[in-house]
Amino acid sequence: MEDTDHYAPGPHESSREFSWPLLDLLPARIAAAQASSEAFAAALGDAQADLRARFQDDEPVETLVHARARLIDVVLREIWPRKLAEHAADWALVAVGGYGRGELHPYSDVDLLILVPQPLDESGRGAVEGLVTFLWDIGLEVGHSVRTIAECGEEAAASVEVMTTLIEARLLIGNETLFAALRATLAPGALWPVKEFFEAKVREQNDRHAKANDTAYNLEPNVKTGPGGLRDIQTIAWVAKRHFGAETLDELATQGFLTPAELRRLKSAQSFLWKVRFGLHVATG
Q1: pTM (whole model) above 0.85
Q2: From 54's CA, which of 146, 231, 271, 283 has a CA 20 to 30 Å away?
């Protein structure tokens, strides 16, 4: 079980120390309540309220977005061995998509990949169903898939969208060897060479912009998918990750892809859009 005595920033967040006693005390709180669904639900509810209050107190939104991802990390690592005792060491629980980046807004879906060494039998399917049901019961909106390494490779080869989701995969708990095999399967030398990936993402972006009439000046712009929105910034990061192996936007300047001034503008834009999106989540629940 991971040590959660101190908050440890993820790969995409600021290294500025973030103190969150609620998170530090969560494992002990769960254990004291015998890991009941009610205890997990109450802890998540308290965390949401605390994040909302911190947002209203003008805590940096970057800190809050990464803090919620860290919270869900801790919750899932507490649940995994308890609900999948028979399979916990053989399978791998993997965060994908935005959650894989370590970025979660208050009501963002928690996207998970359950990586298994071979197709599931009836017992395995029952175990997954029990796990996912428990996660929904405690208030997590989970998107999940169960795949073998071969299935991940086949689906990623057929779809740049799947490939994009998987290149942001982050191991939460479980079989490290299995996860390493996934990373090898997805390497640029195995699937989606850099040039092909770049061209596919440009086509995807052009299609997305066309749906918004190629303008960011709509009456109700979509801060996530509209032109100049978060998805465009993420596209830059995805291409850079595929080409440079970059894990953060800062590395784009290190690699000479952006000037320091361009990097500052990009990060400022992302911060603004995150703040708008976080506020919309808080306002709409």
Answers
A1: yes
A2: 231
